[in-house]
Every structure is written in structure tokens, then in C-alpha cells.
# Entry
Amino acid sequence: INLGLKIPYAWVSLRSWEDPDQTERLLLRRGEQQMLWGGQPVLVQIRSGYFGIPWAFHIEPDEEKYNLEILKMAPTASEVWKRLVNFYIDRQRWEEAAATAHDYLKVYPNDVEFAIGIGSILNSADEYSEGIAFLEHAVGRQPTYESCQLLAAALSHQGKKTRAAELLEKSIRINPDSWEAYYHLGYIYTEMERYREAAAMFEKVLERQPRFPEVEKQFADLRQRLPAQSATHKRNHKKPSRSVKVARSAR
# Structure
């Protein structure tokens, strides 16, 4: 159909790694033409269309193969390591992303910012077992308010409240003026039934954020719990009764 317009197109011949003798042709969009060159390793993403007819919806350079080849020649190329990690993250290949990031940190162990970034991404993807390791690395190398907060949040999500509380206490020592650590520590202490300490943390939040309805309610609820907790504590520490003493001396 002649629309009176020039419609540029191009095609590429693809040769599969699995069957080098077989080639297939694929039409390219303009953006794909600009980023590809002949003989380049590429990835073609295939989707199953209607009636089971597969179609290629995206073609791009094979960054994984390209970056791995560079690292064979230049194993200290930091940006190439990072590009490879991001390649895996973009495709949600979490195990490979974590393994590659660990390899990078073997070369550059003091890149704390990188460790924090990777740990945060993995935790946000619910890959806590991998993400926590990177945050532990960052805290061990150079503890900061941010890294302690992030690691504490991940550990709390995993039910490791005691360690999370220790990290939040550490973050407060690093930056005692910020309210977030007191806020999170108040909730952790509450879950640990350390109500008096939890109330003290929420009180410190209100000193820094006076108008905070959520914290005001938590603080008021804890103040009501404290008398009951104190009474229980006293009952558990009463002196033994006379009958118990008699029984012991009779033995």
C-alpha cells in the first residue's frame, strides 16, 4: 500500500549458538538498528503469541557475554563488574547478581556504597538471605547511620530482633539527632515486650517530631501498659512464703 511515506526498515540474519548452521531473519526497528553491529553477540527475547505462534519482541547486545570477555582480559575493570551486576538485576537473576557482586567486592572490598546499594536492591526483591550479607559487609567495613538502619530493618523482617535493636542503638550513637532510629527502635522494643524502653524511644521521637499522631498513640498505649508490667515484675520477685521455708528446713 503506497502511503506516500518512506518507511525505512532493515533486517538481520541470526545464527544460533546452539545450531550455527541454521539462520533466521528478523526485522529491526530503528532503535535496534542504531545499537547493533554485524557479527555482534545478541540476545533475542521471544514471547508466545496468540495461537501459539512465537514472536521476537526485543533484540539487544548480549551484555553478559561482552562483559565477561572484558573481565577475562581486565579483571579489575570496576565499571564492567557493575554493568554485569546491573545486567543480572534488570533480568531478576538474583543469584547471579549476588555472586557477581561478591566477586566485585573481593577486588574492591572498601566500596561500601556499592555494597549498600546491592543489599538494598536484593532486600527489596525479598532476597534477604543475599541482601543482608552485603549490608553486613558495609557495616563491618564502615558503619554509617544509613547502613545500620538498613541492616536493622532487614534483620527485623527476618525476626532477628535482638541484633536489629543493637544496630539501631549503634545508629543512634552515630547520629543522635535523627528521629527515625528512635522510631524503629520503639517498635522493636515493643515487640520484645521491653515496654519501658519502647516508651522512652517514642518520647525521644516526639521531642524531635512534636506533632506525630501515630507516635503519640503508641506512647500513650505504652504508658498504660507500664503499671501492669511493673506489678507483674513485683509478683515475680516476691520473697518466698513461710510455708516454702518450712518445707525446705524440714528436708
Observations:
- The first strand starts at residue 10 and ends at 15.
- Strands lie at 10-15, 23-28, 42-48, 54-61.
- The chain is about 65% helix and 10% strand.
